[in-house]
């Protein structure tokens, strides 16, 4: 009697499939799961579920000391961004941003920041990534070189011979911080793969989705990835907000300066930063009808004064900035004070871009 006839694996799989699906344990460790529970977040410094009674004490205790933690984080990031406190403010807002809902195909709450004015091919951007890596639970750095764009596989594709999905660069866990380093981009030609990869990156930023390639059709998978783009001039990629870096400090030795920043922070302080950034992303936020009405009136007034420069996009972005500003201070609703502060930050950011435009002609 032929025992292989009883083995469904023998009947169904090709040799190629068996090889791919049964790699040695030395290459692919096996994890057998009997029970799995979906976590609210992946930060081990926070209670697993924030709604439980004992977790509420943890949250309220942390919220009571939020103000000094924010001030310290702002100071730390200001040093990392060479003394630029405005860029540091926007980096905090970016790091606590998250997609909180989807309206039709529009992801609400994404806040992709393009930090322009970064020194070209410098170790500065590498260190900015290292600092972010120390603050968030999941991160990935993508060096945007012609070589990488033309030869990497950004979107996952189905290998029908081996009957498996081959992963791609953009197959990232939810809430990953993706730092795209455009300062590495040199002169050269993108081939078909390169163009597809740039398109995939643009779709991730704009729509927060990755199209998986199944040869005969594409399948959309929604994602929630925080994208920070570092570039010299304005990025080639879309973004929600461009902040032009204005260094106040020019360190004689960049490597030494950046390394000393992380070694100077106490591990206990670093843990507070990590809790701060994770916790604020999980808070609910709302705007009262009264404040909504005041904001609308304010917008109409701004349009009257300067109809050319204030658009619906500006209103949307200022509301986002106000949202994350409020959350960054531990406030779950918008106050008049935060709205005015958001307008002030946006005014400073735009004035810089305007100034840059005057210096560099039509670059921006």
From TrEMBL:
Gene Ontology BP terms: DNA-templated DNA replication
Membrane-spanning residues: none
Pfam family for this entry, one: MCM_bind
Recorded GO MF terms: chromatin binding
Location in the cell: Nucleus
Keyword Iron: no
Listed InterPro entries: MCM_complex-bd
Listed GO CC annotations: nucleus
Keywords: Nucleus
Main localization of the protein described in the UniProt heading: nucleus
Family the UniProt entry places it in: Belongs to the MCMBP family.
UniProt protein name: Mini-chromosome maintenance complex-binding protein
């Amino acid at each position: 009697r032929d025992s292989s006839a009883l083995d469904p694996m023998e009947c169904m799989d090709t040799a190629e499939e068996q090889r791919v699906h049964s790699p040695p344990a030395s290459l692919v460790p096996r994890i057998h799961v009997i029970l799995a529970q979906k976590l609210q977040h992946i930060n081990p410094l926070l209670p697993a579920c924030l709604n439980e009674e004992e977790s509420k004490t943890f949250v309220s205790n942390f919220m009571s000391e939020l103000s000094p933690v924010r001030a310290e984080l702002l100071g730390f990031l200001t040093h990392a961004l060479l003394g630029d406190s405005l860029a540091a403010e926007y980096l905090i807002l970016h790091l606590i941003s998250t997609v909180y809902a989807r309206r039709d195909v529009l992801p609400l709450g994404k806040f992709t920041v393009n930090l322009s004015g970064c020194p070209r091919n410098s170790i500065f951007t590498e260190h900015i990534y290292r600092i972010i890596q120390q603050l968030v639970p999941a991160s990935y750095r993508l060096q945007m070189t012609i070589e990488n764009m033309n030869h990497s596989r950004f979107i996952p594709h189905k290998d029908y011979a081996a009957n498996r999905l081959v992963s791609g660069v953009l197959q990232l866990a939810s809430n990953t911080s993706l730092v795209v380093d455009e300062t590495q981009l040199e002169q050269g030609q993108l081939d078909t793969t390169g163009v597809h990869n740039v398109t995939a990156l643009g779709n991730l930023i704009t729509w927060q989705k990755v199209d998986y390639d199944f040869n005969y059709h594409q399948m959309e998978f929604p994602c929630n990835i925080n994208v920070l783009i570092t570039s010299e001039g304005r990025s080639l990629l879309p973004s929600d907000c461009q902040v032009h870096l204005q260094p106040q400090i020019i360190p004689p030795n960049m490597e030494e300066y950046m390394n000393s920043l992380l070694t100077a922070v106490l591990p206990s302080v670093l843990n507070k930063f990590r809790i701060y950034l994770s916790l604020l992303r999980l808070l609910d936020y709302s705007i009262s009808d009264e404040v909504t009405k005041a904001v609308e009136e304010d917008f109409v007034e701004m349009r009257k004064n300067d109809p050319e420069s204030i658009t619906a996009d500006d209103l949307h972005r200022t509301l986002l900035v106000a949202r994350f500003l409020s959350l960054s201070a531990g406030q779950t609703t918008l106050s008049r004070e935060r709205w005015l502060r958001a307008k002030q930050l946006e005014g400073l950011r735009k004035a810089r871009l305007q100034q840059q435009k005057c210096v560099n002609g039509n670059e921006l």
